[in-house]
Amino acid sequence: MAKKSLNNIFLSASIPYVERDRKYYETADIVAIRDAVRALATVVVPTCHLIWGGHPSITPLIRFVCDRMKVDLKAHVSLYQSLYFEDKFPSDNFAFENIILSPRADNLKDSLAIMRKALMEDNEFVAGIFIGGMEGIEEEFELFRKTNPKALALPIASTGAAARILYDRNSGEYDKRLLNDYAYMAMFRDLLSTFL
């Protein structure tokens, strides 16, 4: 379990599925989602603690970045996963020493709610990054803002999907770079510089 610290960064990200709600898929930029996740991990893992709820399209990207770093992953990375998905866990999950498994409920929605509650209660965050995604990203954004009201919340609108919807709801409060800057490494280094 991640220790409470001043440099926990929450990542909420996924690649929308075409068979799900089309409002997410139609605006999603899959290349940008992947680039943003890789850039975020590259920037924050060496000096911060990156924490996310496992998603099969995101965890392998983070593992790819971490495999090339010489850092103590246990001190820098934590993955939360619901036992609801136990029979579908990607092998990448077990590359991380800090994998926190939450109990399964009778259905997907309740299982995810249990995992998200544990993730937010176990950790204090200085920032949350929201990339691409579907309704789960919107739900995690609201939960994050409620439980971490003083933390920086960054919906990366250039990745489209749920992140773009979140940005558009309150665009006046966000840096305009979130909308059209694809130089993710430089952007994250700048916007998260206080915590790095």
Structure description:
This protein is 41% helix and 17% strand. The protein is α/β, with parallel strands linked by helices. The protein has a single domain (8-191), classed as Rossmann fold. A six-stranded parallel β-sheet has the order 4-3-2-1-5-6, sandwiched between helices. Strand 5 (127-132), helix 6 (135-147) and strand 6 form a beta-alpha-beta unit. Helix 2 (30-44) packs across helix 3, helix 5 (108-122) packs parallel to helix 6 and helix 6 crosses helix 7. It starts with 7 loop residues before the first strand and ends in a 5-residue tail after the last helix.
> Roughly how much helix do the residues carry, as a percent range?
40-55%
Query: Structural class of the helix and strand makeup?
Result: alpha/beta
Helical element count?
A: 9
Physical arrangement of strands within the biggest beta sheet: 4-3-2-1-5-6
Mean pLDDT: 90
Task: Enter the CATH topology name.
Answer: Rossmann fold
Q: Could you tell me the strand content as a percent range?
A: 15-25%
Report, as a whole number of angstroms, the end-to-end distance. Answer: 21 Å
Give the total of domains: 1
**Would you identify the regions where 5 or more consecutive residues have pLDDT less than 50?**
none
Radius of gyration: 15 Å
H/E element string? Answer: EHHEHHEEHEHEHHH
Beta strands, count: 6
Biggest sheet layout: 6 strands, parallel
What's this model, at a glance?
With 196 residues, this protein is an alpha/beta fold. Helix content is 41%, strand content 17%.
